[in-house]
């Protein structure tokens, strides 16, 4: 068999490798392009309007709820802040935002849940995103919580439109700079409920003891004053004795005896 004949009988798998590689490159490029276009236009104005409708439908109240959110004072990197906030917002929408079934607010929440699931492909998950670094417990009204969520979606939308791959940034170094988690951030003008309870339990017994002491002192003074009033007539009778009494006459006789 000649060399040419041998070459002519080479299996087709000899040329299959380069062709598969070329096809994979083209497919991956098209997928990347689709993902970029997908992430850039993932959040629409309709989603922001849904959030605004949720905000407008909330009743104004001073009642507060507790939820975990990013402490922006500790995390100054804006991209890392939004990256951390996205996963927390996803948990809040799934676990905290509860409305009656088949209501406009419940339907809006389901739509936001679907958006969060789709957006997850636009974020790269690092290990630090899963822990509680840079996270604090906030005590705010439902209205304030919804405003936070809307701001996160709005700012995420702006950054994705500029660079669809911006949230692939590794933020582990930024998260490592945050202080240890577990601290609570309370709204201005409020106090820690544990401290308030401790002060209450400490202050009330003290006030009771002071009142008892004052009451005992007043009762003691009243008792002494009543006893002094009872003893004063006997003293007055001995001091203010009339001149014609036998005792005074005897004393006069003793004085008038001749020498």
Keywords:
single chain, 259 residues, mainly alpha, 3-stranded mixed β-sheet, 10 helices, 3 strands, disordered N terminus
Instruction: Give the structural class.
Output: mainly alpha
Portion of residues in beta strands equals: 5-15%
Which spans of ≥5 residues are poorly predicted at pLDDT below 50? 1-10, 12-16, 20-35, 186-191
Quote the average pLDDT: 75
Number of strands: 3
Q: Give helix and strand order, one letter per element, not per position.
A: HHHEHHHEHHEHH
Instruction: Determine Rg (CA atoms, Å).
Output: 44 Å
Word description of this protein:
By secondary structure, this protein is mainly alpha-helical. 65% of the residues lie in helices and 5% in strands.
Short description, anyone?
It is built from ten helices and three strands; from the N terminus they run H-H-H-E-H-H-H-E-H-H-E-H-H.
Q: What is the topology?
A:
Layout: H1 3-8, H2 13-40, H3 45-56, E1 65-70, H4 78-95, H5 104-119, H6 127-130, E2 135-140, H7 142-162, H8 172-176, E3 184-185, H9 193-239, H10 246-256
Parallel strand pairs: 2-3
Antiparallel strand pairs: 1-2
Helix pairs in contact: 3-5, 3-7, 4-5, 4-7
């Amino acid at each position: 068999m000649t060399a040419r004949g041998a070459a002519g009988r080479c299996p087709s798998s000899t040329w299959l490798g380069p062709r598969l590689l070329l096809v994979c490159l083209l497919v991956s490029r098209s997928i990347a392009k689709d993902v970029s276009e997908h992430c850039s236009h993932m959040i629409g104005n309709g989603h922001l309007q849904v959030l605004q409708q949720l905000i407008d439908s909330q009743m104004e109240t001073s009642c507060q709820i507790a939820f975990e959110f990013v402490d922006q004072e500790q995390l100054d990197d804006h991209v890392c802040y939004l990256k951390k906030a996205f996963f927390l917002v996803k948990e809040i929408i799934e676990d905290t935002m509860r409305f009656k079934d088949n209501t406009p607010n419940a339907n809006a929440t389901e739509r936001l849940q679907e958006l969060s699931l789709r957006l997850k492909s636009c974020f790269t998950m690092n290990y630090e995103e899963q822990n509680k670094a840079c996270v604090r417990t906030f005590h705010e009204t439902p209205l304030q919580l919804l405003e936070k969520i809307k701001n996160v979606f709005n700012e995420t939308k702006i950054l994705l439109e500029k660079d669809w791959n911006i949230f692939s940034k590794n933020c582990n170094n930024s998260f490592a700079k945050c202080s240890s988690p577990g601290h609570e951030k309370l709204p201005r003008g409020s106090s820690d409920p544990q401290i308030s309870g401790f002060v209450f339990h400490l202050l009330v017994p003290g006030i009771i003891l002071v009142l008892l002491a004052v009451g005992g002192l007043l009762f003691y003074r009243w008792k002494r004053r009543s006893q002094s009033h009872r003893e004063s007539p006997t003293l007055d009778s001995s001091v203010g004795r009339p001149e014609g009494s036998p005792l005074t006459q005897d004393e006069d006789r003793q004085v008038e005896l001749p020498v």
